[in-house]
Amino acid sequence: MVEQFQVNATSTAVGQQPLDQGPSGQLGSYAGFKVGYDFAVRDVQLAFGGPTPIRTAMELEGSYLGSYEKIPLYNVSSGGPTVGYETYNLNAYSVMLNGLIKFEDLPVTPYFGGGVGVVFMTALNHKMDVNGVVAGTPTTYTTSTGTGQNTSLALQAIVGLERKVYENLTLFIEYKFLAFLDVKFAYGDEPTTSIPPVAGGSNSQNDFMANQILSAGVKWSF
């Protein structure tokens, strides 16, 4: 798993100027389980070629996503050099309802689909370290270490391949683009100051956080 980017993302230490977040790009871990139902195969006439055997499927998926995030911080809307970093350990638990379309009668079965659900996130050991020119003023501060929680709508797109290897046993590999919408974390409300240095709280928000996931697993059908 890798967090690719965040959209309209800002972090703000209490009493300080808001800062834009850049992409983290940190690798993380992903694990999940699914239960589902494969519907009967139907011949579908596509825009090209003859009738194509297609199977639809529904899945209920539960998953865990974890990563250490190190997010670069910049002056709002002005870009320029990095003025600091925001760090935390992210734990995200999601429950998704997926719909899939599978192209049957091939040596390897390709499939694609999407899902919608909810994600429960916890950001542990959060801290902002800033040392740069913010809004034209040399600024140095560190926020206190905190924990934030958030519950958000989650959406994902799925592309994968599966192959039956023994009777009811199937191996699969799939790519997911998983987005968490309107993510907001709060890490305390005490002011953070530069002079004298006081480590206080902070908060962060974004329109959505996008994650790319590559996973493999086994499926048992009955």
Task: Give an overview of the whole structure.
- This protein is mainly β.
- It has one domain (2-220): Porin, CATH 2.40.160.
- Helices cover 0% and strands 76% of the residues.
- The protein has an 8-stranded antiparallel beta barrel with strand order 2-3-6-7-8-10-11-12.
- The radius of gyration is 22 Å and the shape is elongated.
- The protein starts with a strand and ends with a strand.
Short description:
The chain is mostly beta strands and 222 residues long. 0% of the residues lie in helices and 76% in strands. It contains no helices and 12 strands.
- Overall pLDDT level: 92
Oligomer designation: single chain
Query: So, CATH architecture?
Result: Beta Barrel
How far apart, in Å, are the first and last alpha carbons?
30 Å
Beta-strand content estimate? over 45%
The structure class reads mainly beta
**Helix content percent band:** under 10%
Shape: elongated
Please mark out the parts with pLDDT under 50 across 5 or more consecutive residues, or reply none. none
Strand order of the largest sheet: 2-3-6-7-8-10-11-12
